[in-house]
Every structure is written in structure tokens, then in C-alpha cells.
Write a structure and sequence with these properties.
Strand order of the largest sheet: 5-4-7-8-9
Number of strands: 19
CATH topology of the largest domain: Structural Genomics Hypothetical 15.5 Kd Protein In mrcA-pckA Intergenic Region, Chain A
Shape: globular
Strand content: 35-45%
Mean pLDDT: 92
Oligomer: single chain
Number of domains: 3
CATH architecture of the largest domain: Roll
Radius of gyration: 18 Å
Number of helices: 2
Order of helices and strands: EEEHHEEEEEEEEEEEEEEEE
Helix content: under 10%
CATH superfamily of the largest domain: RNA-binding S4 domain
CATH class of the largest domain: Alpha Beta
Low-confidence stretches: none
């Protein structure tokens, strides 16, 4: 795996200056697809402006606590994915990776009370020995427990232990965030789901989308802060 990626070939979700050079940092392979995350070094340098160069970003990672979902990360190539929480205990600052209304990855500053909270979509389920249910989440986490969630539902986790605080079902009236399709980066209220097709309301307009593009973010209203 090459450590660099041509800027012109970077996903459109990356809000980077494509004319600043030929190459940019390629993230390490992980749970998130290339268009759903950014290398930590780019987040520090280009989004949070805590470093001017990539060597400065690397030095920052080696000398300071930079936490992703409550776990310290040192690699500038570690991928920060959708809804990951980036926190700096020494600075008392915390941020969430999200999408803007143009569908580009962006970083949102959070209140301290949301530093240990994360929304994760259930993307799969499996049965373990003794009948235990394992839930596979969009960010690669696997959790177990009697939480009665379906594939497509969302769990609200407390970090870093990934304990389940709440479950949000993909049902009428749920607050949803669009993570794909033409409405990517928009929020709305779910009206109906029929197989692969869904309908949601945004500012009084009824919009159709693919069910896979929905990410439930709360019951009636978002459980966490979204710009």
C-alpha cells in the first residue's frame, strides 16, 4: 500500500487544495471507505490548523494526547471516519467528523458533554456461542448485549468503552442524516421506509432516497448537536 495518494484522485468528500502539490497522505486501511474519512494528519493540519506542515502534525501526535473515540492515536495516517470524535484533553477541545451540505467531510466543534458520546449505525448482526448477539457497527466496532437493535438502526455509545446508552430505530418520525445520494450532508425527518426506498421530510419538502443513505440520529430530533 502506497503512503501517498495523488491529490487529483482524492475523493470529492475531501475538502483539500488539489493544486497545492501532486500528492497527499493516504490513510491506513480501516473500517471506513476512502471517501468516508480523512487521515489524522490532514485533519490536524488542514482542518484544525494545529500544524502548518505534515512533519509538525507528526510531532504533535508524538508529543501530545490526540484521542479518537477516547483512544490515543499516534499515526498521521490513521483514518478519522464519519462521526468519529477527535479530542485534545490538554486543550479541552473536542470535535466530530461530519458532512457539510455539499457532502464534504468537515469537522465540528463539540461541547464537552458530547466528548464521550458517539452515534454508530448497525450494519450487521451475528450469533455468537451461547446465543449471544453481536452487532457490527459502521466504524468497525463490534458490541454485544441485549439491546434489540435491527440492521439500519443507530446506537448511541459512551466512549471509550462503547457502552450502549440508547437505540434509535429507523422508523417514522426519526431524525435522519443523509450520508449518501443527492441529499448527502442534509438532515430531515423520516416519513417511511419500504425495502430499499425511503422518504424523508426536509423543511416541508418530501424527498425520496435510498434506504442505505439514511443514518438515524435521534428520536424526533437529533440526539447530538449537528450544524
Amino acid at each position: 500500500m502506497k503512503n501517498h495518494l495523488k491529490r487529483i484522485a482524492a475523493p470529492r468528500t475531501w475538502a483539500i487544495d488539489r493544486k497545492a502539490g501532486v500528492y497527499t497522505t493516504r490513510p491506513k486501511p480501516g473500517a471506513h471507505s476512502l471517501d468516508c474519512g480523512l487521515p489524522l494528519g490532514i485533519v490536524l493540519r488542514d482542518m484544525l490548523h494545529l500544524a502548518h506542515t505534515m512533519p509538525e502534525a507528526k510531532k504533535l501526535l508524538n508529543n501530545n494526547d490526540v484521542l479518537i473515540d477516547g483512544t490515543r492515536r499516534k499515526s498521521h495516517r490513521f483514518m478519522v471516519g464519519l462521526f468519529d470524535v477527535v479530542s485534545f484533553p490538554s486543550l479541552k477541545k473536542q470535535y466530530r467528523m461530519t458532512l457539510d451540505v455539499k457532502g464534504r467531510l468537515t469537522i465540528q466543534e463539540l461541547d464537552e458533554k458530547e466528548r464521550e458520546l458517539k452515534l454508530c449505525k448497525v450494519v450487521g448482526k451475528s450469533v455468537l456461542p451461547k446465543g449471544k448477539i453481536q452487532y457490527n457497527l459502521h466504524d468497525g466496532k463490534n458490541i454485544t448485549g441485549d439491546i434489540k437493535a435491527k440492521v439500519g438502526d443507530t446506537v448511541l455509545l459512551t466512549l471509550p468503552k462503547a457502552d450502549v446508552k440508547d437505540v434509535f430505530s429507523r422508523e417514522k418520525g426519526a431524525a435522519v442524516f443523509l450520508v449518501g445520494g443527492k441529499g448527502k450532508g442534509n438532515k430531515g425527518t423520516l416519513q417511511s421506509v419500504e425495502g430499499d426506498d425511503a422518504v424523508y421530510d426536509k423543511d416541508g419538502a418530501t424527498i425520496e432516497t435510498a434506504t442505505e443513505h439514511l443514518f438515524v440520529i435521534g428520536k424526533g430530533k437529533p440526539a447530538l448537536t449537528f450544524n
